Amino acid sequence: MSNREQLRAKMIENAAEINRLHSRIHETLKHRSESDEARQEWSRACEEFHARYSQLCLPDGPHPNLYDRIKTGDPAMIEVALCFLEVRPYFFRSGYHWKTILQKCKRAPMCGEQSERFSRLLEKYTEWKEAQAPKLEAGIRSASRSATAPSAFL
After folding, report:
1. Which spans in the chain are helix H?
2. Can you tell me the distance from the alpha carbon of 95 to that of 87, in angstroms, rounded to the nearest whole number?
3. Spatial CB neighbours of 20, under 8 Å, sequence gap ≥ 6
4. Measuring CA to CA, which of 16, 65, 83, 150 is 20 to 30 A from 105?
């Protein structure tokens, strides 16, 4: 298995673990007021989630100066960033990470192959945004009509 495939597999595995930890918080939250033991279980779930989150966000844990290393064109960090953008793992706050990494990559110097991968990724992202635009506009129009429509319950 290539390094790229290993990175991608690890990102998917880590996202599943973050989701499991996050679900555990919500499961224990339902019962935390029932007893001291239940409250402690919820507290432990929160502590474990927060203790492990930064380690799981990216393979090999938090990379020191990740964004600076992307901006300077560090090939290893560009590879991690591109894999993250391509895999687009889904977990708590992953969308924020994705958009931040995308912005940093836009300004990063990249070698030919990495530059080509990033260009393809940007094309796909642009196509996706264009496909979403009509849905967004319809939602805005609908919300606008409901906000201005007279209510029968007034």
Report:
1. 3-29, 36-57, 66-71, 75-87, 94-106, 112-148
2. 12
3. none
4. 16
Q: Of 20, 41, 19, whose CA–CA distance to 29 is shortest? A: 41
Buried b (16+ CB within 10 A) or exposed e, 1-29: eeeeeebbebbeebbeebbebbebbeebe
First CA to last CA distance, the chain: 65
- Supply 134's token pair: 């009509």
User: Which of 80, 111, 98 has its CA nearest to residue 7?
Assistant: 80
Question: Residue written as tokens 């196509």?
Answer: 127
Q: Give the domain ranges of the chain.
A: 3-143
At 141, list the tokens.
């129009």
Give the DSSP letter of residue 72.
T
